[in-house]
Amino acid sequence: MAQPTRVAVVTGVNRGIGLAILRKLASGSTGPLVVYASTRAGTLPEVIITEQQQQQSHPDVKILPAQLSLTEPTSIDALAARVAEEQTTVDVLINNAGVYHYRERISNADRTETLETNYRGTLRLCQAFLPLLARSQSGGRIVNLSSQAGRLRWFAPQLRPRFLAPDLAWEQLDALVREYDSAANARGDEVQTGWPPMAYAVSKAALNAGTRILARENPGLLINSCCPGWVATDLGGQAGPPPKTPEEGARIPLHLAFGDIGKTSGRYWANDSTAGTGVGKVQEP
Ligand SMILES: NC(=O)c1ccc[n+]([C@@H]2O[C@H](COP(=O)([O-])OP(=O)(O)OC[C@H]3O[C@@H](n4cnc5c(N)ncnc54)[C@H](OP(=O)(O)O)[C@@H]3O)[C@@H](O)[C@H]2O)c1
User: Fold this and answer.
1) Would 32 be classed as within a structural domain?
2) Which Pfam family is an annotated match for this chain, by its short name (predicted)?
């Protein structure tokens, strides 16, 4: 029997890991698909356009350009509204887009961009797609690209249980992030008060915590976050020469989106090392 066509939404596909994910989907290896391939510009990457023109894309995969800017709530809502108009369901949402200002002292504007993109915008997109994911016949999945930088081992012991509380509410998580933002923005004492030095780490820890809340509130879906490893992209290259290719970096997110993960939801996945090239396993956040 022919496999049914699934609908996937992938963010930040113009370069890096997002492009590697898109190319894997375009190859047809994950089955028949309609893919909403989102970039800030709203255009498809050149390599995908060329493959489409040369009819090299898999005939069972339809890739549609989509516009998304995670710092603009109207852009998030417009993407969800467009997909709801064109499709009855969404099967997979891969939140790959993210930003990393790799410096300890960053401007307030860069800190705001980091928290808006990696935390608030990404979780707003999840919320916007929940009704469509709930209608998936194959069981809707969300994969949030997080980072080992967001693991709680980098946070002071008194902060860790506040992120990990099993009944953590959205208001409490937002309050935690605002507490960090005030310490960093207004007083500059975030490190003395137990926070890691980089806003990126806080944004990804908050994304992991938001992933747990979403999974708890939506038991019919599989919602996980992961670290793709240390990958040779514009973002990963800021910290030195990364050991992994973008194709290797795409493995864990693709496994969580399409592979057999049983009923695992609300967990953080990674390989044991950031150089590891496996499909990851559940790790302590
Ligand atoms: N590379 C690594 O070693 C590594 C390690 C751990 C986690 N990660 C995570 O993996 C994901 C992909 O990273 P990457 O290494 O592939 O990074 P990348 O090459 O820098 O690509 C980042 C992507 O995110 C998009 N983006 C950034 N801000 C956005 C916004 N406000 N709205 C919409 N899209 C936005 C970018 O679009 P533009 O081109 O328009 O800026 C780009 O497509 C990120 O979430 C990152 O945190 C990466």
Assistant:
1) yes
2) adh_short
Assess if residue 1 is contained within a domain: no
CATH number where 152 lies = 3.40.50.720
**Packed helices 122-133 and 73-86: angle between N→C axes, nearest 10 degrees:** 20
Which of 111, 235, 248, when mutated, tests ligand 1's pocket best, judged by the most ligand atoms within 8 Å of its CB? 235
Identify the domain containing residue 128 by its residue range: 6-283
Confidence (pLDDT) at 186: 86
Asked if residue 194 belongs to a domain, the reply is yes
279 CA to centre of ligand 1 in angstroms: 20
Instruction: Please work out whether the CB of residue 69 comes within 6 Å of at least one atom of ligand 1.
Output: yes
The CA-based dihedral angle spanning residues 193, 199, 205, 208, taken in that order and rounded to the nearest 10 degrees:
150
Question: What is the number of the ligand 1 atom nearest to the C-alpha of 230?
Answer: 3
- How far is Cα 122 from Cα 71, in angstroms, rounded to an integer? 9
The pLDDT assigned to 203 comes to 98
The reply to whether 119 falls in a domain is: yes
pLDDT in tens, 163-196: 999 999 999 999 999 999 999 998 899 999 999 9
> Which residue bears the tokens 């399409």?
258
With a 6 Å cutoff on the Cβ, whether 235 touches ligand 1 is yes
Q: How far apart are alpha carbons 94 and 89 in whole angstroms?
A: 15
Q: Which residue has the higher pLDDT, 131 or 3?
A: 131
Query: 15 CB less than 6 Å from ligand 1?
Result: yes
Nearest to 258 by CA among 283, 205, 222: 222
99 lines ligand 1 (CB under 6 A): yes
Domain tally for the chain?
A: 1
